[in-house]
Predict the structure of Glycosyl hydrolase-like 10 domain-containing protein.
Amino acid sequence: MATRRATVSRRTLALGALAALATGPGTPAYASGRHHREMRGVWLATVANRDWPSRPGLPPEEQRAELTAHLDRAVADRLNTVIFQVRPTADALWPSPYEPWSEYLTGTQGRDPGWDPLGTAVREAHARGLELHAWFNPYRIANHTDPSRLTPDHPARLHPEWVVPYGGKLYYNPGLPEVRRFVRLAMLDAVAKYPVDAVHFDDYFYPYPVAGQTFDDDAAYDAYGGAFGDRAAWRRDNIDRLVREVAAGIRRVRPGTRFGISPFGVWRNAGTDPRGSDTQAGVQTYDDLYADTRTWVREHWIDYIVPQIYWNIGFPAADYAKLLDWWAAQAAGTRTRLYVGEALYKAGAAGQPPAWQDPAELSRHLTLADGYPQVRGHVFFAAQDVARDPLGAMARVVADHYRRPARPPRRPPLSR
């Protein structure tokens, strides 16, 4: 209770700071230099060529130039961490003995691009003083449902019993122990080969719900779910096992490498669970993605968490301010670092609420977060939006909060 009162008090102070920024000039606390260590990150997405490379099939020298341009932009904006998506769809952006080269490089899955993107990214990021976090999607196989479009030696074709089609995509079944073992080996291969600073998962575990469709894991549940009261509890245990096993594997393969996860921003609504946030979100990670993100933080199964709080301050169903307060309370007293995922891609985007048409909205997020000592920085989605910045929202963040460089947070104690 004392922790909760302290958090609310800090929120009150933060709201006062926010009001001051909105009503008059001043120097935000971030610009004062007292936060000499904080996460200033950007996601660099490769799935569907979202951020990089700009299109498949570019010559290696052009792909390298585009990649280093994103790194240079991160330095120019005084960021310090790039979260690079290296396994977008059960494929690889490094020479993997387990999975094929990504089609997003050459246009053809399995074709050697003639260079090593992950190796280059690690080397070039470190040369610029940036951390490089390797971003993996554990279970997504393809953004279609046709296995014949995969390479003939793709593990999903060799083991069709591992595969579940759902919502127009193919997924590995998280309920199979052999699947968890395989995806763990495939991801840890990169950790063993490259001095990445962290392993990073996004928000995809069990897939987001699709109306009228059922994720068919009946056979796996019949085989492995007998000890659980219901299928939901079994599914959550499957994801918990993946998280704990990957954490242990990282410690074994490259001690000192961190492990972070960026979940959807709502664990549970308070209307579902009194421990949840004051939100009315249509998706809850605990119930819909079977990801018990709150437990991962409180038990320190991961070294950092980056909840995707992708809504504006005052958004009725999921208010950024309320979610920031809730996540700060969950991280309080734990060894799990809290960073906040920021929706830069919404700034100026058509169809977004009026708050996102204001270039100062994101800057207000950072001002508000500065009132919470649990918040150790922010990560922006995503690199192409940092580069283009059509509304000037990122430029405003840099001017208000990133006037001086900052080192990444110190390495926390290794997870248990």
